[in-house]
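G., the chain you wanted modeled:
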Amino acid sequence: MLTEIGGAVGSVHEDDDVEKAYQNIVNTIYVRYRLDRGAQ
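Predicted structure as tokens:
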């Protein structure tokens, strides 16, 4: 998971793209967390 985040952040260069990528990563992790919690 951490390597995926590092790769996603490292692959973008524009500040706006970094912000969008960060939000997408946070949203993805949050959704996965909620799904994992819901499955238990």
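The chain has a mean pLDDT of 78.

Shout if anything looks off.
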